[in-house]
Structure of DAGKc domain-containing protein:
Amino acid sequence: MKQDAFETESETLLLVNPAANRGRAGRVGERVRVLLKDYGIPTRSVLSESVDGAREILKEAVGRHSRVIAVGGDGLVHHTIQEIAGTSIVLGIVPAGTGNDFATAIQLPTAIDEATDVALGDPTSVDVLKMLDSLQQVRFGATIATAGFSAAVNIRAERLRWPRGSSKYTVATLMELSRLPRYRVEMTIDGREVERTCLLIAIANTPFFGGGMKIAPEASASSGSMEVVLIHDTSAFTLLRVLPKTFSGSHVSHPAVEILRGREIQLEMSPLHAADSCELRADGESAGSLPQTITVVPGGLQIASATIADNSN
Protein backbone atom coordinates (compact mmCIF):
# COMPACT_ATOMS: atom_id res chain seq x y z
CA MET A 1 0.00 0.00 0.00
CA LYS A 2 1.30 3.45 -0.90
CA GLN A 3 1.52 6.53 1.27
CA ASP A 4 -0.96 8.47 -0.89
CA ALA A 5 -3.63 5.92 0.05
CA PHE A 6 -3.85 7.59 3.47
CA GLU A 7 -4.86 11.03 4.55
CA THR A 8 -2.04 13.28 5.74
CA GLU A 9 -1.95 13.27 9.53
CA SER A 10 0.43 13.73 12.44
CA GLU A 11 2.89 11.08 13.57
CA THR A 12 1.34 7.68 14.27
CA LEU A 13 2.13 6.05 17.61
CA LEU A 14 2.91 2.33 17.32
CA LEU A 15 2.46 0.74 20.75
CA VAL A 16 3.64 -2.84 21.19
CA ASN A 17 3.58 -5.14 24.19
CA PRO A 18 6.52 -7.39 23.24
CA ALA A 19 5.73 -9.93 25.97
CA ALA A 20 2.15 -10.58 24.85
CA ASN A 21 1.32 -14.08 23.64
CA ARG A 22 4.70 -15.43 24.76
CA GLY A 23 6.62 -12.95 22.62
CA ARG A 24 4.62 -13.22 19.41
CA ALA A 25 3.36 -9.63 19.72
CA GLY A 26 6.94 -8.37 19.65
CA ARG A 27 7.60 -10.14 16.37
CA VAL A 28 4.31 -8.92 14.91
CA GLY A 29 5.10 -5.39 16.06
CA GLU A 30 8.41 -5.44 14.22
CA ARG A 31 6.65 -6.48 11.01
CA VAL A 32 4.12 -3.66 11.45
CA ARG A 33 6.94 -1.16 12.03
CA VAL A 34 8.62 -2.23 8.78
CA LEU A 35 5.34 -1.94 6.88
CA LEU A 36 4.69 1.57 8.19
CA LYS A 37 8.21 2.58 7.19
CA ASP A 38 7.69 1.14 3.71
CA TYR A 39 4.42 3.06 3.40
CA GLY A 40 6.16 6.28 4.38
CA ILE A 41 3.97 6.75 7.45
CA PRO A 42 5.65 8.98 10.08
CA THR A 43 5.74 6.70 13.11
CA ARG A 44 6.92 6.70 16.68
CA SER A 45 7.45 3.08 17.75
CA VAL A 46 7.31 2.22 21.45
CA LEU A 47 7.76 -1.11 23.23
CA SER A 48 6.22 -1.31 26.69
CA GLU A 49 5.77 -4.38 28.88
CA SER A 50 4.45 -2.40 31.86
CA VAL A 51 0.95 -1.01 32.21
CA ASP A 52 2.19 2.16 33.90
CA GLY A 53 4.72 2.75 31.14
CA ALA A 54 2.10 2.33 28.42
CA ARG A 55 -0.33 4.66 30.19
CA GLU A 56 2.30 7.39 30.52
CA ILE A 57 3.15 7.08 26.83
CA LEU A 58 -0.53 7.33 25.91
CA LYS A 59 -1.12 10.35 28.12
CA GLU A 60 1.67 12.08 26.24
CA ALA A 61 0.13 10.93 22.94
CA VAL A 62 -3.15 12.77 23.54
CA GLY A 63 -2.82 16.01 21.60
CA ARG A 64 0.32 14.95 19.77
CA HIS A 65 -0.89 11.95 17.77
CA SER A 66 -4.03 11.47 15.74
CA ARG A 67 -3.68 7.69 15.57
CA VAL A 68 -2.46 4.91 17.85
CA ILE A 69 -1.82 1.41 16.53
CA ALA A 70 -1.83 -1.18 19.30
CA VAL A 71 -0.13 -4.52 18.64
CA GLY A 72 -1.23 -7.02 21.26
CA GLY A 73 -4.35 -8.48 22.79
CA ASP A 74 -7.36 -7.37 24.83
CA GLY A 75 -5.19 -6.27 27.75
CA LEU A 76 -3.28 -3.74 25.66
CA VAL A 77 -6.52 -2.50 24.08
CA HIS A 78 -8.02 -2.06 27.55
CA HIS A 79 -5.15 0.03 28.87
CA THR A 80 -4.99 2.04 25.64
CA ILE A 81 -8.62 3.10 25.74
CA GLN A 82 -8.26 4.40 29.31
CA GLU A 83 -6.41 7.36 27.79
CA ILE A 84 -8.06 7.81 24.40
CA ALA A 85 -11.76 7.01 24.96
CA GLY A 86 -13.79 10.15 24.40
CA THR A 87 -11.07 11.76 22.28
CA SER A 88 -10.67 12.08 18.51
CA ILE A 89 -7.62 9.79 18.46
CA VAL A 90 -8.12 6.84 16.11
CA LEU A 91 -7.23 3.40 17.45
CA GLY A 92 -5.90 0.83 15.02
CA ILE A 93 -5.48 -2.73 16.29
CA VAL A 94 -3.23 -5.49 14.99
CA PRO A 95 -4.37 -8.58 16.94
CA ALA A 96 -1.40 -10.40 18.49
CA GLY A 97 -2.44 -11.40 22.00
CA THR A 98 -3.47 -14.60 23.70
CA GLY A 99 -7.03 -13.29 23.67
CA ASN A 100 -8.29 -11.02 20.87
CA ASP A 101 -11.98 -10.84 21.72
CA PHE A 102 -12.43 -7.17 20.81
CA ALA A 103 -10.69 -7.63 17.47
CA THR A 104 -12.93 -10.65 16.79
CA ALA A 105 -16.06 -8.68 17.66
CA ILE A 106 -15.25 -5.90 15.21
CA GLN A 107 -14.15 -8.42 12.57
CA LEU A 108 -10.53 -7.36 12.22
CA PRO A 109 -8.31 -9.54 10.02
CA THR A 110 -5.66 -11.71 11.65
CA ALA A 111 -3.08 -11.58 8.83
CA ILE A 112 -0.43 -9.02 9.80
CA ASP A 113 -0.20 -7.11 6.51
CA GLU A 114 -3.97 -6.91 6.09
CA ALA A 115 -4.51 -5.94 9.72
CA THR A 116 -1.93 -3.15 9.36
CA ASP A 117 -3.69 -1.77 6.30
CA VAL A 118 -7.00 -1.81 8.19
CA ALA A 119 -5.36 -0.10 11.19
CA LEU A 120 -4.49 2.80 8.88
CA GLY A 121 -8.01 3.11 7.49
CA ASP A 122 -10.83 5.52 8.17
CA PRO A 123 -12.37 5.48 11.66
CA THR A 124 -15.73 4.14 12.77
CA SER A 125 -17.33 5.30 16.02
CA VAL A 126 -18.06 2.45 18.44
CA ASP A 127 -19.58 2.29 21.90
CA VAL A 128 -17.56 1.77 25.08
CA LEU A 129 -18.51 0.88 28.64
CA LYS A 130 -17.89 3.51 31.29
CA MET A 131 -17.51 2.27 34.87
CA LEU A 132 -17.76 4.61 37.85
CA ASP A 133 -16.97 3.35 41.35
CA SER A 134 -17.91 4.73 44.77
CA LEU A 135 -14.74 6.86 44.80
CA GLN A 136 -15.77 8.48 41.49
CA GLN A 137 -12.92 6.74 39.69
CA VAL A 138 -13.64 6.13 36.00
CA ARG A 139 -12.62 3.11 33.95
CA PHE A 140 -13.53 2.17 30.39
CA GLY A 141 -14.17 -1.26 28.87
CA ALA A 142 -14.20 -2.31 25.23
CA THR A 143 -15.74 -5.78 25.49
CA ILE A 144 -17.33 -7.14 28.67
CA ALA A 145 -17.37 -6.24 32.35
CA THR A 146 -17.88 -9.32 34.47
CA ALA A 147 -17.98 -10.46 38.08
CA GLY A 148 -18.48 -13.74 39.89
CA PHE A 149 -17.26 -17.08 38.58
CA SER A 150 -15.85 -15.66 35.33
CA ALA A 151 -13.82 -13.02 37.16
CA ALA A 152 -12.61 -15.58 39.70
CA VAL A 153 -11.34 -17.80 36.86
CA ASN A 154 -9.49 -14.85 35.35
CA ILE A 155 -7.84 -13.98 38.65
CA ARG A 156 -6.92 -17.61 39.34
CA ALA A 157 -5.40 -17.97 35.85
CA GLU A 158 -3.21 -14.91 36.38
CA ARG A 159 -1.75 -16.52 39.48
CA LEU A 160 -0.90 -19.82 37.79
CA ARG A 161 2.72 -20.28 36.77
CA TRP A 162 1.82 -23.38 34.79
CA PRO A 163 0.50 -24.11 32.23
CA ARG A 164 1.18 -21.16 29.98
CA GLY A 165 -1.04 -19.79 27.25
CA SER A 166 -4.79 -20.24 26.95
CA SER A 167 -4.75 -23.68 28.60
CA LYS A 168 -4.21 -22.06 32.00
CA TYR A 169 -7.79 -20.75 31.80
CA THR A 170 -9.05 -24.32 31.44
CA VAL A 171 -7.12 -25.33 34.55
CA ALA A 172 -8.35 -22.26 36.42
CA THR A 173 -11.96 -23.04 35.44
CA LEU A 174 -11.72 -26.55 36.85
CA MET A 175 -10.17 -25.25 40.04
CA GLU A 176 -12.93 -22.68 40.56
CA LEU A 177 -15.64 -25.25 39.78
CA SER A 178 -14.53 -27.23 42.80
CA ARG A 179 -15.58 -24.37 45.08
CA LEU A 180 -18.17 -22.45 42.99
CA PRO A 181 -19.15 -19.49 45.18
CA ARG A 182 -22.61 -17.94 44.87
CA TYR A 183 -23.33 -14.22 44.75
CA ARG A 184 -26.19 -11.92 45.58
CA VAL A 185 -26.71 -9.48 42.71
CA GLU A 186 -28.64 -6.23 43.17
CA MET A 187 -29.03 -4.04 40.10
CA THR A 188 -30.95 -1.05 38.90
CA ILE A 189 -31.19 -1.25 35.10
CA ASP A 190 -32.51 1.95 33.54
CA GLY A 191 -34.47 2.58 36.72
CA ARG A 192 -35.78 -0.99 37.13
CA GLU A 193 -34.65 -2.89 40.22
CA VAL A 194 -33.47 -6.49 39.75
CA GLU A 195 -32.30 -8.93 42.43
CA ARG A 196 -30.90 -12.39 41.74
CA THR A 197 -28.71 -15.12 43.25
CA CYS A 198 -26.18 -15.96 40.56
CA LEU A 199 -22.89 -17.59 39.72
CA LEU A 200 -21.79 -14.80 37.39
CA ILE A 201 -22.81 -11.65 35.57
CA ALA A 202 -21.48 -10.40 32.25
CA ILE A 203 -22.26 -6.87 31.10
CA ALA A 204 -21.52 -6.91 27.41
CA ASN A 205 -20.65 -4.25 24.87
CA THR A 206 -19.54 -6.98 22.44
CA PRO A 207 -20.34 -10.72 22.27
CA PHE A 208 -17.04 -12.35 23.28
CA PHE A 209 -14.92 -12.88 26.37
CA GLY A 210 -12.50 -15.49 27.67
CA GLY A 211 -10.81 -16.11 24.32
CA GLY A 212 -13.81 -16.72 22.09
CA MET A 213 -16.69 -17.52 24.45
CA LYS A 214 -19.78 -15.96 22.85
CA ILE A 215 -21.40 -15.17 26.18
CA ALA A 216 -23.63 -12.39 24.79
CA PRO A 217 -24.49 -13.28 21.18
CA GLU A 218 -26.76 -10.27 20.62
CA ALA A 219 -24.37 -7.65 22.01
CA SER A 220 -23.10 -5.01 19.59
CA ALA A 221 -20.82 -2.02 20.01
CA SER A 222 -23.11 -0.04 17.70
CA SER A 223 -26.38 -0.60 19.60
CA GLY A 224 -26.09 2.08 22.29
CA SER A 225 -27.00 -0.46 24.96
CA MET A 226 -25.54 -3.39 26.92
CA GLU A 227 -26.49 -7.05 27.15
CA VAL A 228 -26.64 -8.22 30.77
CA VAL A 229 -26.08 -11.98 30.99
CA LEU A 230 -26.80 -13.74 34.27
CA ILE A 231 -26.12 -17.38 35.05
CA HIS A 232 -28.34 -18.26 37.96
CA ASP A 233 -27.44 -20.37 40.97
CA THR A 234 -27.01 -23.94 39.74
CA SER A 235 -24.78 -26.96 40.29
CA ALA A 236 -21.18 -27.29 39.20
CA PHE A 237 -22.24 -30.15 36.93
CA THR A 238 -24.84 -27.98 35.18
CA LEU A 239 -22.41 -25.10 34.81
CA LEU A 240 -19.84 -27.48 33.34
CA ARG A 241 -22.44 -28.46 30.73
CA VAL A 242 -23.44 -24.86 30.00
CA LEU A 243 -19.96 -23.34 29.59
CA PRO A 244 -18.94 -25.22 26.40
CA LYS A 245 -22.14 -23.98 24.75
CA THR A 246 -20.95 -20.39 25.14
CA PHE A 247 -18.52 -20.86 22.25
CA SER A 248 -21.48 -21.19 19.87
CA GLY A 249 -23.86 -18.96 21.81
CA SER A 250 -26.34 -21.81 22.25
CA HIS A 251 -26.23 -21.48 26.06
CA VAL A 252 -28.80 -18.68 25.89
CA SER A 253 -31.68 -21.19 25.69
CA HIS A 254 -30.70 -22.89 28.97
CA PRO A 255 -33.10 -22.16 31.88
CA ALA A 256 -30.17 -21.12 34.10
CA VAL A 257 -29.31 -18.25 31.73
CA GLU A 258 -31.12 -14.90 31.78
CA ILE A 259 -30.40 -11.97 29.46
CA LEU A 260 -31.46 -8.39 30.10
CA ARG A 261 -30.65 -5.15 28.29
CA GLY A 262 -29.99 -1.60 29.42
CA ARG A 263 -28.07 1.65 28.99
CA GLU A 264 -27.22 2.32 32.63
CA ILE A 265 -26.70 -0.24 35.37
CA GLN A 266 -26.09 0.38 39.04
CA LEU A 267 -24.52 -2.88 40.16
CA GLU A 268 -23.89 -4.23 43.63
CA MET A 269 -22.77 -7.80 44.09
CA SER A 270 -21.63 -9.68 47.16
CA PRO A 271 -20.61 -13.29 47.87
CA LEU A 272 -22.99 -15.31 50.01
CA HIS A 273 -20.04 -16.60 52.04
CA ALA A 274 -17.76 -14.11 53.75
CA ALA A 275 -14.65 -16.12 52.84
CA ASP A 276 -15.23 -15.45 49.13
CA SER A 277 -14.46 -12.20 47.30
CA CYS A 278 -15.92 -10.29 44.40
CA GLU A 279 -14.08 -8.15 41.87
CA LEU A 280 -15.18 -6.48 38.65
CA ARG A 281 -13.09 -7.28 35.59
CA ALA A 282 -13.26 -5.52 32.23
CA ASP A 283 -11.57 -6.87 29.10
CA GLY A 284 -9.97 -9.40 31.45
CA GLU A 285 -8.32 -6.65 33.51
CA SER A 286 -9.06 -5.48 37.05
CA ALA A 287 -11.72 -2.75 37.12
CA GLY A 288 -11.97 -2.30 40.88
CA SER A 289 -14.49 -3.36 43.47
CA LEU A 290 -18.26 -3.10 43.55
CA PRO A 291 -20.64 -1.28 43.74
CA GLN A 292 -20.23 0.51 40.43
CA THR A 293 -22.38 2.32 37.89
CA ILE A 294 -21.85 1.10 34.34
CA THR A 295 -23.10 3.08 31.36
CA VAL A 296 -22.77 2.91 27.60
CA VAL A 297 -20.98 5.77 25.90
CA PRO A 298 -22.32 5.73 22.32
CA GLY A 299 -19.54 6.39 19.83
CA GLY A 300 -17.02 6.85 22.62
CA LEU A 301 -14.16 5.27 20.70
CA GLN A 302 -12.81 5.82 17.20
CA ILE A 303 -11.68 2.50 15.69
CA ALA A 304 -9.85 2.25 12.36
CA SER A 305 -12.04 0.59 9.71
CA ALA A 306 -14.03 -1.40 12.22
CA THR A 307 -16.90 -3.54 10.97
CA ILE A 308 -19.55 -3.61 13.67
CA ALA A 309 -22.36 -6.10 13.36
CA ASP A 310 -25.59 -4.91 14.96
CA ASN A 311 -26.84 -8.14 16.54
CA SER A 312 -29.51 -6.46 18.62
CA ASN A 313 -32.32 -6.68 16.07
About this structure: Residues 3-121 form a domain with the Rossmann fold fold (CATH 3.40.50.10330). Residues 104 and 208 are 8 Å apart (CA to CA). Residues 1-8 have pLDDT under 50 and may be disordered. The two ends are 37 Å apart (CA to CA).
